[in-house]
Amino acid sequence: MKIGIPREVKVKENRVSCTPGGARMLIQSGHEVLVQSGAGIGSGYPDEDYRSAGARIVPEAADAWAADMVIKVKEPMKQEYGFLRQDLILFTYLHLAADDALTGKLVESGTTSIAYETVQSGRRLPLLEPMSEIAGRMSAIVGAYFLSRAQGGKGILLGGVPGVLPGKVMVLGGGTAGINAGRVAAGMGAEVTILEVDLEKMRFLDISLHGTAHTLYSNEQNLLEMLPSVDLLIGAVLLPGARAPKLVKREFLSVMKKGSVFVDIAIDQGGCSETSRPTTHDNPIYEEEEIVHYCVTNMPGAYARTATQALTNATLPYAQRIADRGLIAALKESSDLALGLSTHRGALFSQAVSHATGLPYTPLDLSSF
Is 305 in a helix, a strand, or coil? Predict the structure, then answer.
């Protein structure tokens, strides 16, 4: 199979979908890997590294997209829509519930798309987890940075100093992103509370964080009671494949102190606040209701080397299975992978995306493929 690795075109997206080591493994299995020139530069992988691994360096995006399967990091941008076609397998993060236009293009083009974020093993999302870990840890770091008065924040140092109380951090959601956000914020010395609805997950958080963070049942009353004292609010809510619930209403922000910071990790899925809107690494923040909002849709792209390695570790076995066995056999052999199938030959197989976009939903029946 020909496998294409194009250069990412999203603003400040420095990740690449596969390391040279990953490309070497695919090539050793008998596949041809086409890497667009410069695709790995942002992650510290020059073309020569891929060439040494046996990949073919191609000059243009169209050359990489001409492959049988394209492996990406982020969803196709508008300038890439023209590359979508019926005989293409696209394997990448898609976040379609928050992107009506892309969903429509994938259906219209007949492209077979498999979303990293909905590949599911039991209750785990194995291809989303590594990026959630990075975004979670990063949320505490960027939140602490934008709390500085020089960046428009209220001037609170999260860890405090002797004789001065630490800052307060509240995390909405105790999944992979939430626990990593809480762990780093607690490591900075902040007072951390994680809101969650799953009692078993709260017990796990209590044990794994060793008392460095508190848990609180997530409901509107508890949220409103906590917000006036919160310096950094982190949204880490996830409904697999669906739009994030709007847990933070606009009027809730009025009870927070001016200059507090809100980091919305859930922005890829539409954001968990009524005031959230996508931002970029070039212009990462804005103010709403005098609260600093950070809503960058590709947070892990800031730590591209780490993120690329973590992403390849997770996605490569699935990409290898598709390449080795072929699409249909791979889907039939792996229920995990089948759950990631978003579109195929004009049909939409995600009920959550159908609900969000209004496009018709087709129940997945692999026996008819």
Answer: helix
From the list 172, 174, 169, the residue with the least C-alpha distance to 142 is 169
C-beta of residue 195 within 8 angstroms of C-beta of residue 218: yes
Structure tokens at 101: 């236009």
Concerning whether 282 is annotated as a catalytic residue, the answer is: no
- Phi first, then psi, for residue 210 (nearest 5°) are 50, 40
Catalytic one of 231, 264, 268, 336? 268
Is 268 an active-site residue?
yes
CATH H-level, domain 2-119+304-368: superfamily: NAD(P)-binding Rossmann-like Domain (3.40.50.720)
Which overall architecture, per CATH, does domain 129-297 show? 3-Layer(aba) Sandwich (3.40)
pLDDT of the residue at 123 = 86
Q: 98-112 pLDDT, tens per residue?
A: 999 999 999 999 999
pLDDT tens sequence across 113-149: 999 999 999 989 999 999 999 999 999 999 999 999 9
Structure tokens at 160: 């405090």
Reading across the β-sheet that carries 232-235, which strands appear in turn? 213-217, 191-196, 168-172, 232-235, 261-264, 291-294, 285-288
- 48 burial type by CB count under 10 A (0-12 exposed, 13-18 middle, 19+ buried): exposed
Of 95, 99, 231, 264, the catalytic one is: 95
